[in-house]
Amino acid sequence: xxxxxxxxxxIAALALLFTSVVPAFAADFTDLEGHWSKTFVERLVxxxxxxxxxxxxxxxxxxxxxxxxxxxxANLYDLNDAAKDEIYKDYGPTIEKATDIxxxxxxxxxxxxxxxxxxxxxxxxxxxxxxxxxxxxxxxxRAIQKAxxxxxxxxxxxxxxxxxxxxxKCLGSIALLSDMKIVSGDNNGNFTPKASVTxxxxxxxxxxxxxxxxxxKITLKIDDYLGLDAAEGILTSVxxxxxxxxxxxxxxxxxxxxxxxxxxxxxxAKALSSSYAGDHIKIQYQDGKALIATITxxxxxxxxxxxxxxxxxNTASIKLTDLVSGAxxxxxxxxxxxxxxxxxxxxxxxxxGAFVTLKLEKGTVTEVTSDTKEYTISGSVGKVSYDTxxxxxxxxxxxxxxxxxxxxxxxxxxxxxxxTITVDRLSEGEEINAVIKGGEVTKLTTEGKDANASGVLTxxxxxxxxxxxxxxxxxxxSVTYAIDNAAAAFNGDxxxxxxxxxxxxxxxxxxxxxxxxxxxxxxxxxxxSDKLSAEILAVDPTNRVLTVLKDGKLTYINCKKAASILNSxxxxxxxxxSLAAGDMIVAYGAYTDSTNFAATSIVIELKH
Length: 608
Prior knowledge:
The protein is an alpha+beta fold and 608 residues long.
């Protein structure tokens, strides 16, 4: 039996139809024209609750079988593929044992999951036979989840002339459906409880159900199934904000922890805590947020995960390496059931380098789940933590956050286009692809940009909060970007300081999320080895000399050989005569002695 989970609203009458007949559009039905049920049947077909036959007929007067009725009741629920698969995983085996009506298997499983019938009831239902109207009323009440209300009407007095023929266990359901105007008697005032029901009559009943639900703004719910994506693995850690698990594929996944996270441990409601780390866990999630956690916690069961480092055939043992801690331990698998990539295999076929999860019972390995596949996951880089193990969150929209762990001493190859780079050159927010095999990150690739620019750096603008660069391209167009103060800077393959790049230099930049994250100096406008930043104290226009105070002593800047004087705010070239006392400048050139500086270029940082 499944454990109780958070309920999810499942809107009625939106699901796709799965029946033994071939769907046909209502307009194509050849036997509906002039039939009293035409409007009802067409509505249900449009809603995906009923379908026609391959011969383009609706057969409105055909008697309804129990299987057909249950299929249409199941189609009242909106379930995504994940929920259907989950339901069938739980109830499919029971359904398959009870009947050979394969075309209805999935819908019958949904009916059992929704509580429309129980396993014991199913054994006594003749699915291929006609269903009495009173029995259909009971299942319809359960489908719309009104059984508790119906139970209160078990002693109701019905006005149907044949009310005495109604079985007592069906009385409350018929009374409720009558009050809700979903069912009614025939022209003679009889309910005919033991008569069969035609497709046309059932279509009328279902349309009345839809009218009631729409009018009252009632939505149907199905207990125990969220219809969400799910992930299974071993619980790694728990915090107030996140739940981290490691899947059987070796990938770590972090789920944001919903404030109302429902957790069951061995079938009982419990609070999720780190005490369950190392246990098997199933997470059901939506938009990356864990809503349901189902844990199996057994005192004699433990799990181990890692990469198969060695395989010893003579002892039927393996050495398992923990990729994060680096620890290695040997395990004997002679008594284990081994499954690799979904198929049962012998020990001899176990692949070295595979990622495995071992289940140990009282220290003996009883089950092995091996995964040899290579996975590529994509996302944007989160905040990277550096230690002997590099921790890199990889964020994907509407899914869990993957976490990459990489040994700093044995890092995978990292490629930005054709260029091999180091991990510190990856920027937060940068989109990357990570290749994982055997639970180990083997390669990272990135285009590293949402834009790039190349040209002459013309303007550097600094404010208290940020710095922007304006780059003029070969086509004369200028583009301005904010620059990360920690952006990587290179001259060829050599790392350089960012502040050695100045207006007038030719650069190419990589832009990530609108911010320059990497700069390559292609050509320096000022090949000088020194720079001097100071405030002008005096200007000698005759000798083209500027007097400044630097490090507590007067320094004289000779500008006779200065090729350019550039205003950083405007990018414009100025004359020497425009310089004035109070201007903040950066002079590029070289010291000729301790107090004299020969400038090759001047950048005005702030005009007095």
